[in-house]
Amino acid sequence: RRRANDHLNSFDWISELSKPDFYAAPVTCFSHAPGYDMWDNIGIDMKVEVENTDCDNQANVVTGQTPHSFWVATVMNICGYKALMRYEGFDDSSHDFWVNLCSSEVHAVGWCATRGKPLIPPKTIENKYSDWKDFLVERLSGARTLPSNFYNKISDSFKSRFRIGLILELVDKNRISQVKLASVCKIVGKRLYLKYYDSDDGFWCHEDSPIIHPVGWATTVGHNLDAPQEYLERMQAGCDQMIEVHEDDATIELFKMNFTFEEYYLEGKTNGFVEGMKLEAVDPLNLSSICVATVMAVLKFGYMMIRIDSYDPDATGSDWFCYHEKSPSIFPVGFCAANGITLTPPNGYDINTFRWDTYLEETKSLPADEHLFHRDIPDHGFRPNMRLECADLMDPRLVCVATVARIVGRLLKIRFDGWPEEYDQWLDCESPDIYPVGWCVLVGHKLEGPPIVQQPVV
Amino acid sequence: QAPSKPRRWEQKQVQIKTMEGEFSVTMWASGGSD
User: Fold this and answer.
1) What are the residues whose beta carbons fall under 8 Å from the beta carbon of A341, sequence distance 6 or more?
2) Taking the mean position of all CA atoms in its chain, how far away is CA A352?
3) How many beta carbons lie within 10 A of that of residue A427, not counting itself?
4) What are A118's strand-pairing partners?
5) How far is Cα A398 from Cα A400, in angstroms, rounded to an integer?
6) Helix, coil or strand: residue A55
7) Distance, CA of A194 to CA of A207 (rounded, Å)
8) What ipTM is given for this predicted complex?
9) In whole angstroms, what is the distance from residue A163 CA to residue A184 CA?
10) Confidence (pLDDT) at A7
C-alpha cells in the first residue's frame, strides 16, 4: 500500500504509467524543473532505499508521517519524476510499484544506516533468504546509487528566486498593451500568484515567464504602464538619474531573459524591426494559432509592440502586445507555409485563399527579414506523443495532463489530454509552463486530469 | 542550449544496516554537478 502523496484531488498518473504506449518527456527536457542538473545521472538499474510498505507497522502510510521502514529497490523504469521500483528479493514484476523519485520515500543506498535505521525486508519475502547480508552484498556491490546529497539538492532546486511581497510589472490581462504593478502573493513550485495593485484579481505565472518584468522595466523600454501615482512619480524621477530601489522591488537579476540590456547600450545593438513590418506570431490571446501580425511600434532594447492582424479593428491600441525581437514566438513571413502549419489570416481574409505576396502589396508593407529572427534550435529532446504536465495559459491557475502533439523545430504543439485541438498551445521548447510527469505532486500543485466524459446510459 | 553537465561517477563505500548487523559495500554514485 503506497503513501497517498496528494490531498488536492489531483489526477494520478499511476493508471497511465504502465500502459505500453505511455511515453513521458524526461526531466532532462525541462531546464527549469527541479533536479534538471542532476537528472543525467539518474537511470534504470540504480539501487535506492525506498519506503517499505509491506511491513507490520503501516500507520505512517495512512497518516502521512515520515516513513520509518525502508528496503532496497532497483529502478526498473523512469517516466518523468516517477520511477518503477522493484524491492530486492522479488524475481518478477508482480510487486513492482511507482514512486516519485524526488519524494521523501526514496533515498540513496546508505541513507538508512547514517540515521541508525535498519533496512527491513518486505514481509512477503522475509523468509526467502536465510542471510540477507550476503544477498545484499551480492546485489549492491558495484551497482549505482543516487548521490548522497540528492535529496538536499532537489530541495534546493525547489526554491523560488522570488518571495511573497515583492512588487513587479505584469502584463495587464484586461489590456495586454500595458503592464500593471502587481505583487507576489503566493508561490507554488516557482509559479507565482500575482495580484494587480488595484484589484483583488490575481494571476498565476512561472517566475521565468516573459510576461513579468522588474520594477522600472516599462519606463526603461518605453512600454505603457499602469501603477499608483507614487510609483509613477518614482519612475519619472528615475528617468533623469537611476530609479530608486525599494526593499520590496523585484530587481532585474530575479528575471530570466535570453538577452542582456548591456548588449544594447554597451555594444550599440539596434532593433532591426521597423514599424509597419509584417511577420507571423503566436496569438497571445489564443495560443493555438499563429497569425499574420504587424510591428506597431519599436521600443528600446529589442522590444516591440505587435498587433495580430486577425483581431477586429481597434484604434485604441489596447490589443497590441509586447514581444522581444529574440522571442521564440515570432516568425518570418512564410514560416507557417514552410512547415505545414495553418496560418490565421488577417481580419476579412479567407484562410484558404490568403496569399502573403498579395497582402504585402495591398497593405504596401514589407516583411520582416528572416535574419532578424533568432531561430536556433537546441537539441531539446522532445518527441511527438511524449506526455507531460502543462499550464493552461488561458487560465494559468490550471496545470493539466498533456501530450506533445507536434514539433516544428523548437516549437511544440501541446495538446491537453481529452480536449479538442482548438485548446492546443504552441509553446517554445524552453517554455517554463511545461513540466515533467510527477511535477505537480512534487511541488504541491493540483494536476487537472482529462475532462470526465459522461457515459451514455444503456 | 543548456551547458553540458559534468558526469562524474565515484566509487564509494556505502554503509548498510540490517537487523542482523552492519556492513559496507562498494557502490558507484555520481558527484552530480557540484
Assistant:
1) A290, A335, A408
2) 34
3) 24
4) none
5) 6
6) coil
7) 10
8) 0.81
9) 7
10) 72
When CB atoms are compared, the residue of A37, A116, A147 closest to B29 is: A147
**Is A138 in a helix, a strand, or coil?**
helix
Instruction: State pLDDT tens for residues B1-34.
Output: 344 444 578 889 999 999 889 999 999 988 644 3
With a cut of 90, say whether residue A148 has pLDDT above it.
no
| CA gap A81, A64 in Å, rounded | 20
Between A119, A142, A150, which is nearest B17 by CB?
A: A119
CB A80 within 8 A of CB A27: yes
Distance CA A127, CA A403 (A): 44
Cell readout for A292 is 499574420
Q: Give the C-alpha separation, A289 to A80, whole Å.
A: 28
Q: Is A116 on the interface with B (CB under 8 A)?
A: yes
Say whether B5 and A40 touch across the interface (CB within 8 A): yes
Q: DSSP secondary structure string, A271-311?
A: ----TT-EEEEEETTEEEEEEEEEEEEE-STTEEEEEETTS
Return the C-alpha cell found at A89.
Answer: 528479493
| The pLDDT of residue A455 | 74
